[in-house]
C-alpha cells in the first residue's frame, strides 16, 4: 500500500502541531492565523519554500522559475492546515449516529461544534447520507470517543472503469465544459457522485496506474442561501493516484480573504481535499456542488512545480505582500496568475464591459450611494473574466488543458525537455477525467452551478439579497515586514479620480464657460 501523502508529500515528512508552535520553521505571520488550529509542518531538515523580499509576487515566481534549471525539487509548504490530529478511515456510522466503527475500533461519535456565525449544520439528512457508505473521519480521538471535524465519503474516488464522455465538438471546448457542468439540475447539487473519462492518450494501457501524478482544476458552485456567493469558488489541486482511487489526501490550494473572519472558519492555506470539501463548518461540499477536471500525468514534475509555486505564494499571502480583493485578486485571479507566471498560457476571456464601467461610474455612485461600492462595481466590469469568475477560470483552464493534450498527441514533443508548466502538462498528460461531487445534505439549502458572467450574477440576485455579515480581522502592524511593497491600485481608483476631477473642476469650468458664452450672446 502507498505510504500516506499530503498531495505529493509523504506525511512522514511532517509533524502535527498547532499555530502556537514556537519551534516550527514557519512564518510568524502564518502561525498567527492558525492559533489553536491543527496544522502539519515539515520536520527539521526538510527544505521549505522561501520567498524574495521587496518584490511583487509575479516577479518572485518568474525569477524563481528562471533559476530552477538543474535545481533541487521545490520547497515544501511551510504548513498544511489539516484541522484535526487523527484519521479514522473505513468507518461506518451507527443508525442512531451514537458511535462509529471500523475493523480496528468502535468509538463514541460526536461532532465538532457548529460555529456561531454558521447558519446551518449536520442534520438527519446528513446522517442518512453518511450511514449509507464507508467514511473517513478527521477528528480528535480521546479514549473511546472521537470528535469529528471532517466527514468524507470514501466512495468519492477515481474509477478505472469510468465511462467515456465526449464533449460537444461543435462548440468551443469552454462552452462544452459549461454544458457538462450544467447538465444536471442545480449544477448536480443533488446528483450522485460520478467520474467520466474525457480524454486518454492512445497506447496507454492503464492511465490511472497507482503512483501517477494528478493535477486538479476545481470549481465549487453557487451557494443556495448566500447571495454574495453565486460566483462560486475555485482551487487548483495536486496529488498522486492511489491504488484504491482515493482522492481525499490530495492537496487543495485554497485562497480566501484573510482580512475577514469567515462565518465558516475558512482560513487560506494548502489543505487536504477531504477537509477542504468535508469540514463540518468550512467544507465547500456542505453548501454547494463541486466539479473537477483531473489531469493524470506520467510524471510528477508539473504538479510539483505548480505546488512549489503556490508554496511561495502562500508565504507572500500570509505576510500581506499579496492582498485578497474580491474583484481583482480573488481565488480565481491568484490561481490563474500563478499558472501564467510559471508558463501555462491561459487564454484571456476579456472584461464584461469596460466602456460601461467608465461611463457608468457616476450612475454607480448614485445608485449605491457609496463611492466604495461604485468602485467595486467598476472593477467587476473592468476585470478579465478569467481572473474574476471561478466558472470562467474553470472553463478557460479546462479548455486549454484539453487543447494541450490533443495538440501533444498530434505532434509529440521533440528537442530539449520542457521547462514551463504548460509544456510539462502537454508532454506528460495521459488522461483527463471529469468528476461531479454533489452537495452533502444538511440543514442548508441546496446550491447551484456558479454564474459565468456579471450579468448572470445580477439576474440571480433577489430584490432583497441574503448576505452573511462577517467581522473584520485586522492584520497586526507588528507582523508587517518592512520590505512590503504598497498594493497595486485597482482600476477603479483611477476612474474615481478622473470622474472626481471632472465633477469638482471640469463641470464647473464648463458651466462657467457656458454662462459666459450666453452672457456674451445676450450682450450682443
What does this molecule look like?
- By secondary structure, the chain is α+β, with helices and mostly antiparallel strands.
- It folds into two domains: 5-84 and 168-349 and 384-460, no CATH class; 353-383 and 489-524, no CATH class.
- It is 32% helix and 19% strand.
- The chain has 14 helices and 17 strands.
- It has helices spanning 28-34, 57-66, 124-131, 173-181, 273-278, 301-318, 331-341, 354-368, 371-382, 385-388, 390-410, 421-428, 454-460, 491-523, and strands at residues 5-6, 9-10, 14-18, 38-42, 80-81, 86-93, 99-101, 106-111, 135-142, 145-153, 194-200, 213-220, 233-240, 251-254, 269-272, 290-297, 429-437.
- It has a seven-stranded antiparallel β-sheet with strand order 11-17-16-12-13-14-15. Strands 6-7-8-10-9 form a five-stranded mixed β-barrel.
- Strand 1 (5-6) and strand 2 (9-10) form a beta hairpin.
- Helix 9 crosses helix 14 (491-523).
